[in-house]
Amino acid sequence: MTTQHSDDYTVESDLARMDLDRIHEWLSTDAYWALGRSRERVETAARHSLNFGVFSGDGTQAGYARVVTDQATFGWLCDVYVDRDHRGRGVGARLLEAVMATLRPMGLQRVLLATADAHEVYGRIGFVPMPNPERLMILGDEDR
């Protein structure tokens, strides 16, 4: 999937186009949920997910998101990141639009995400607070 936008940003989903070194730098040094994540872990996660990258006109990757999904009933939107130099230009909104355009035809019953600070951003595309959070459980690092 490639989507061209009038402001010269494109959204692509081909893993071969993703700049995994850049994504690793973003996530491991600037994303509160992934600080210290290893390059190997970033690549492994990407290989087993649907990947979405936003690229500027010169080909530089400006943003990233991935979805862990069975492509039938469930999806987990994660690692959504827009490079600091590209924020405030609608890049994140375009990225999320492309993600949702890919997921809608799958007819997933549920798409989840976790955020500490972007509730309004995700609310604009239809996400709402978990109606019954007491039903959810976690195994692992509950802070990440």
List keywords for this structure.
144 residues, alpha+beta, 4 helices, globular
Rg result: 15 Å
**Pattern of helices and strands:** EEHHEEEHEH
User: Strand order of the main beta sheet, please?
Assistant: 1-2-3-4-5-6
Strand count: 6
Q: Largest sheet, if any? A: 6 strands, mixed
Average pLDDT over all residues: 93
Structure class: alpha+beta
Shape: globular
Quaternary state reads single chain
Instruction: Tell me roughly what share of residues is in helical segments.
Output: 25-40%
Strand percentage lies at 15-25%
Low-confidence stretches: 2-6
Distance between the termini: 30 Å
What count of helical segments does DSSP give?
Answer: 4
Structure description:
The protein has 144 residues and is of the alpha+beta class. Helix content is 26%, strand content 23%. It has four helices and six strands, in the order ββααβββαβα. It has a six-stranded mixed beta sheet. Helix 1 packs across helix 2. The radius of gyration is 15 Å and the shape is globular. The N terminus is likely disordered.
Topology:
Elements: E1 2-4, E2 10-12, H1 20-30, H2 39-47, E3 50-55, E4 61-69, E5 74-82, H3 91-103, E6 110-112, H4 119-123
Parallel strand pairs: 5-6
Antiparallel strand pairs: 1-2, 2-3, 3-4, 4-5
Helix pairs in contact: 1-2
Brief sketch in words of this structure:
The chain is an alpha+beta fold and 144 residues long.
